[in-house]
């Protein structure tokens, strides 16, 4: 019952409430990014969603464009702005994904959506991570995040898809 309609209802109510409550913070971050020379404060990218169907994920922009004013290609490390570092450290760059949850592309809890180019690389077991909607937070994020290797993350994503429940989701949101 939770999988069929409960999770979506839960996501819709919490994401809608979160967007309303966090709206002043959302506006403050957006204006801060615009003032700090980001023309558009949002980063949009295609990611695989439920059943590997692509959707556009929304995040706050934390990096400048790949080329500098002198047409030199910059490394990812050099592209992260000071404000971007703060947003990433506090995970506030993920805040716009509440919109993805509200419109039904994502869930609050589920495997984090990776890049589209990884989808053909998954084996049948790993591809099970796409049997549920991707989430803003997930089992791998609350159990090590970047300290885990890829195999551990993918194993944890599949474990979540097989054990998803309202209590597990509540537990993960509390840990997040």
The total beta strand count reads: 4
Shape: globular
Number of separate helices? 8
Would you list the SSEs in sequence order as H and E? HHEEHHHEEHHH
Counting helices, strands and paired strands, the structural category is alpha+beta
Tell me the radius of gyration.
Answer: 17 Å
Report the major sheet: 2 strands, antiparallel
Major sheet strand order: 1-2
Summarize the structure.
By secondary structure, the protein is of the alpha+beta class. It is 45% helix and 11% strand.
Describe this structure in words.
The chain has 176 residues and is α+β, with helices and mostly antiparallel strands. Helices cover 45% and strands 11% of the residues. It is built from 8 helices and 4 strands, in the order H-H-E-E-H-H-H-E-E-H-H-H. It has helices at 2-21, 23-35, 76-79, 82-89, 97-102, 139-142, 150-163, 166-175; strands spanning 42-48, 54-60, 107-109, 135-137. The strands form 2 sheets. The chain has a two-stranded antiparallel ribbon. A two-stranded parallel ribbon has the order 3-4. Strand 1 (42-48) and strand 2 form a beta hairpin. The chain is globular and about 55 Å long.
């Amino acid at each position: 019952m939770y999988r069929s309609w409960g999770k979506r209802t839960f996501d819709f109510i919490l994401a809608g409430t979160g967007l309303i409550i966090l709206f002043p913070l959302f506006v403050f971050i957006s204006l801060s990014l615009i003032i700090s020379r980001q023309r558009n404060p949002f980063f949009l990218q295609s990611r695989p969603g439920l059943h590997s169907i692509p959707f556009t994920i929304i995040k706050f922009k934390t990096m400048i464009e790949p080329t500098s004013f002198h047409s030199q290609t910059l490394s990812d490390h050099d592209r992260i702005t000071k404000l971007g570092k703060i947003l990433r450290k506090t995970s506030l760059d993920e805040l716009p994904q509440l919109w993805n949850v509200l419109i039904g592309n994502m869930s609050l809890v589920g495997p984090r959506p990776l890049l589209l180019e990884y989808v053909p690389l998954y084996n049948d077991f790993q591809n099970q991570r796409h049997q549920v909607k991707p989430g803003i937070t997930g089992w791998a994020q609350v159990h090590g995040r970047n300290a885990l290797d890829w195999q551990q993350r993918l194993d944890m994503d599949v474990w979540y898809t097989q054990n998803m429940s309202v209590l597990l989701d509540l537990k993960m949101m509390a840990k997040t």
